[in-house]
Amino acid sequence: MKKSYKSFVIILINWGFLGSIIGVFVGSTSALLLNVNDLLTEVRFENPQLILLLPIGGLIIGFIYTKLGQGSGKGNNLVYEHVHYGQGGLPLRMGPIVFISTFITHLLGGSTGREGAAIQMGGSIAESVIRFFNIDFIDRKIFLMTGISAAFGSAFGTPLAGTIMGMEVVSQGKFKYEGLIPCFIGSFTGHFVTITLGVQHEHHVIKSVPPIDTITLDKVIVLSIVLALASILYSQMRHGIEKYSRKYLKNLMLRGFIGGTLIVALVYIIGTRDYLGRGLPFLDEAFVGQISPLAFLAKILFTAITMGSGFRGGEVIPLFFIGATLGNTLSPIIGLPTSFLAALGLISVFCGGTNVPITAFIFSVESFQGQGATYFFMTCIISYILAGQHSVWPSQKLYEPKS
Amino acid sequence: MKKSYKSFVIILINWGFLGSIIGVFVGSTSALLLNVNDLLTEVRFENPQLILLLPIGGLIIGFIYTKLGQGSGKGNNLVYEHVHYGQGGLPLRMGPIVFISTFITHLLGGSTGREGAAIQMGGSIAESVIRFFNIDFIDRKIFLMTGISAAFGSAFGTPLAGTIMGMEVVSQGKFKYEGLIPCFIGSFTGHFVTITLGVQHEHHVIKSVPPIDTITLDKVIVLSIVLALASILYSQMRHGIEKYSRKYLKNLMLRGFIGGTLIVALVYIIGTRDYLGRGLPFLDEAFVGQISPLAFLAKILFTAITMGSGFRGGEVIPLFFIGATLGNTLSPIIGLPTSFLAALGLISVFCGGTNVPITAFIFSVESFQGQGATYFFMTCIISYILAGQHSVWPSQKLYEPKS
């Protein structure tokens, strides 16, 4: 017993030490990512003609991944796969490459988020720490999970959801407690470092949550099914585009160029830049006002093309956007408050697109101060079940990447 | 794909149907348990001399388990073990027996809760449903989990925590998503049935949550360590008493009689009945006023003897009591608001005693409307790590029952 307590304390110190190191580095790079990105977005707002360069941007990103990628092109999936199979080690250059590509994407108006870049940088940093300290095969997956947690916690300012994300995202239907302490320490450290470096996170407010009664519960169930369908539509379209272009557009540069051209064409056809970048002003509007009822469809199209053709950033914020706008659209039809439905959509489509129900629920608690927790819990479960069908089948794969 | 969707829908209907049935029956029996218990507690308050019969009560309960137990004496652990190993089936009589024993315990003043009785009844009901519908070996564990979820959700009026409880409690460090839908349906159905049958659940209020800063976080960390130690003390003492009496008091009737006598002696030595039953008035007081600083120690002693000598009920409410009173005691020392520390203690000791960190966190969100979520999250993780040491060892058993 005494011996095991001693080794327990040693493990604990180890986890604390390495978790903090990963947290500090990931938090710092996340701050860099978020701050530079905000700056580039401002530049883009001031120079709307920059969108015309998006095809060239796609070409450059294709060039970078062709020449320097070393497999980094698989993005988040590569990080997740390494948690499972872990042979060989992640390419360390993955982080810097995805940062540069994300900067290009955001400056020129690709429709994307940025937490994917943070997660890939998190993976790179964790891999560096693993190599530097010569960490063995069994523990390396725990520290890769720590990198993911630190990245998610710092990218969104949600250290609780970040902690759970690292443990939950790497495999569907299995929750890896062994990473609890390092993920926790990494996520919180990352978050505080990012905050200290001046990052301010966005907040959305639910103005009123309907009281729990049978009618509202039924409405929320129906709504959750519709929202899950939207996340399925997004996943299918995004993977369809990627699959198609992998078959017919093997050249990454050409793929990026054509993808960029399509986005430019869409901007001029639809006549708005609302769906470019993260689209925050529009996302904010979904919580308070009336927006175009087909906004969610437009965003699905913009982001599926952007991500499917090789641009970089992240898919979580687009999922937020799709969900919140669809919630907004359905608000007058379903007869529930707009801000509540926008929030419900945001959480639901996030959950459906990423298959992390506990993370999504805890994200809702952190983002909306626990308001409407019962509804968020329900929508997460429904979304997870319907959209993540791979995870409820007896024949499910252990891990089926969706994002 | 189409075929798998069809089987998915069939599974879903199956889960919905059986989950609802389990929820309805468990919710009804929980309502019975809670209502009868409240009544018996009132009778006890009006007739304080009933405590003198506690030794006789212990003798009767010992008699019941000796003659009729069929292994039911292992209580919750038996339910959890069956989720894992599942051979043979739970004894159906487990539920009725534990109800009667719990009624006796509460009427005569044993220091205990009641959710253990609910969970064991939940197991019995799930087992009946499994047998009635001839459910196969693979699915039976899912429906036993559903019974646990329905019981916890309905016993505390916390359907979210109930859902997670069924998936989390059965094994440390593994989170069983396969039960998500039936546990969810069972827990919510159970909760609504219980509410419909007139049960009112207790609520505690946190008056103020300190803002998040380094000093408060440090204080919460230190406090969480102390709280985890309290939950370890309880677990050790309770199992010590049980182990000792198993060795030297093999006769269950004699064991119950002696345990009851010890409780009576303690009541007269300490000179208060505050630690008998659930001790709700005192627990409420811990959130608002000043209580005896050693209340947590007294409760540890009372409940460890009660549960260790064979009385029935549940250990969660005593864990709440121990945590809330210790939080209250430490409030002036640590310089944080009383109601906040009482809540923190309640959650922390619950988590430490039962090893269900996600359940405990979600319980905090449900009970305190998301207030102070960051602190609760931290305390759950610290408590889980320190008190549940079995679960962080490489050599951990898959399942090491603590309660």
SSE blueprint and pairings:
The structure is a homodimer of 403-residue chains.
Chain A: H1 2-46, H2 54-68, H3 76-84, H4 94-108, H5 115-132, H6 137-156, H7 159-168, E1 174-176, H8 180-196, H9 214-248, H10 252-270, H11 280-288, H12 295-308, H13 316-334, H14 338-354, H15 357-367, H16 373-387
Strand content of chain A: under 5%
Oligomerization status of the protein chains: homodimer
**Biggest protein-protein contact in the assembly:** A-B, 39 and 39 residues
The top-level CATH class of the largest domain in chain A is Mainly Alpha
Distance separating the two termini of chain A: 44 Å
CATH topology of the largest domain in chain A, by name, is Clc chloride channel
**Secondary structure: number of strands of chain A:** 1
Query: Please, how many helices of chain A?
Result: 16
Structural class of chain A: mainly alpha
Uncertain spans of chain A: 390-403
Shape of chain A: globular
- What is the CATH architecture descriptor of the largest domain in chain A? Orthogonal Bundle
Radius of gyration of chain A: 20 Å
Helical amount among residues of chain A, as a percent range? Answer: over 70%
Can you tell me the number of structural domains of chain A? 2
What is the H/E order of chain A? Answer: HHHHHHHEHHHHHHHHH
The average pLDDT value of chain A, as a whole number, equals: 90
CATH superfamily of the largest domain in chain A: Clc chloride channel
Outline the biggest β-sheet of chain A. Answer: none
